[in-house]
Structure formats: C-alpha cells, structure tokens
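Progress report, Aim 2. The chain analyzed during this reporting quarter is listed below.
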Amino acid sequence: MADVNYTWNDYRAKVRQFDAVLEHGKAASAAVSGLTLTAPHVSYGEQIFVKLLSHGVALRRLAPDPGQQAPRELWDLPSMSAVARCLIEAHDAFEYIAGHAVTESERSFRIRLWELHDATRRLQILAAIGSNDPGVASIRADAARLQLTLGSHEYLASLPAVPQAELRLRLSRNDPPDFHLGRRQRCEMSGVDAHWHKAITMQLSQHVHTLPFSVHQLLQFQAGSPEALRLMAQPLVFALPFLARTIHAMDQLIPQRIPKPPSRTARTMAVWRELARQGMKDIA
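Predicted structure tokens for the chain:
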C-alpha cells in the first residue's frame, strides 16, 4: 500500500541520502583512476563501476530538484526508471565479473563467456544492418577464438551434466548467455534477496514500457500528492542499495585505495546494503 503520509520532505531526505552515497562513489572512482590494473576482472570491475556511476549521475539529474517547491507535474518517470534499471544491471555485471568470490578457473570462464555474448550480439546487429565495416572480421575472429576457448575450458568440463549440456548446446547454436548462472544463483552469491531483485526490476520495466499499468498510474496520481511523490522517489530508492553495494565491493576489489566515507554516509550505505539483503517488502 502506498504511504499516505509521504511528503516532499520525505522525498528530499531520500535524495540527500542518494547524493551522499553518489558523492562517495565519485570519490572512490577518482581514487582508483589511473591505476595500472593488470588482473582482467579488476580492470573490468573498475570500468563497470564507472559505468554504474554514470547511471547514478544521470538518474540524479532526471529526479525532481529537492531544493525547489513540490512539483506540480509528474516528472519523467519512465526515463528515471530506465536509468535505475541500467544501474542495477551494471551492479549485476560487476558482481558476476569482479565481485563474487570464485576460483581463478571460474573467473576466466565467466569473463570469456561474457565477452563471447557481447561479440555474438554485435555480429548479429552488424549483420542485421548489412554492415561492410572491415572491423567486422576482427569481431568474428574474436568470437571464434572465444568459442574455441570456452568449448575446451576446464571449468565448463567441471560443471554438472545437465547445466553443462545446456550451456554446450547454447554455444553450439551460437547463442551464448551473458551469465552461466540464473538470477537466483547470482543473487545468492551476492547476498541480495532474489525475489526482491526480480520484483523491483519488473516494476521499473513496467514504467519503462508503455503498458496500461504505467499509463493509468501516471494519469491517476495528482502531482505533489503523497502517491505521486513516492512514485517519483521509487527509481532512486530502488537504485540506492545497488549503488551502495557496488561502492563497498570496489573497496574489497581494490583494497586500501578507496577513501573512507563520512560516518553518516557509512551508516546510510550500511542500511541500504542490508535492505538489499533482506528485501523491501512494500514496493508498491
């Protein structure tokens, strides 16, 4: 049920928390910028982190300005929801590539599978538009190399019979997944409530797509009402736990480089990380 007492001050409080965590994220990024990161998963992790921060910055710019009076119109909720979902997906990629504690064998398998998924999709897009770019040959060669490496990878051979057969079948059909683990398994490894993760990404998608739910909701809510204010805060609230989690993970990935956050920001981050672990039941 929507909180009938949600006010403009409540919205401002959420934005202040988002701003504090985002600023610490920027400081963390600045602290590791320019470092020579030789390990592939660490290098990818830093790049994904920068991408995630860019989504956070864009989301904040789209959000209604808390320094102004309560808005008299509903802001661009679909765009805010799209960017919030991008931030969550960046968190998921960071965890899969750089965050989870796995063996070196599994790590190298994950990275190569992720790269093959990307190369395969790029080739499909280029083929669909009839591209004659000479760079296509290089992408095709990379995909062939990755396909060969994955097919004989020791980690693939160590998987149980059923998931191994399913993955080999997808590789043979030129349809490699981005992740070899499902959402539930990845969330479990990350310490994130899987049901909540699925629910919020679906809810954000409902606003991204033009569907009856999102159309009716925008028309029914009066700008400045408690329901509308809570709705406008929703993308920030859904993205904040993943922003806090990834900043914390960067500190573990590149130890002794990330500055300590102010004590209040540290407490805020801890609260939101715990919310991701437990899941927020009221997401309406």
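The CA atoms of residues 216 and 260 lie 44 Å apart. Residues 8-278 form one domain. These observations will guide the mutagenesis work planned for the next reporting period.
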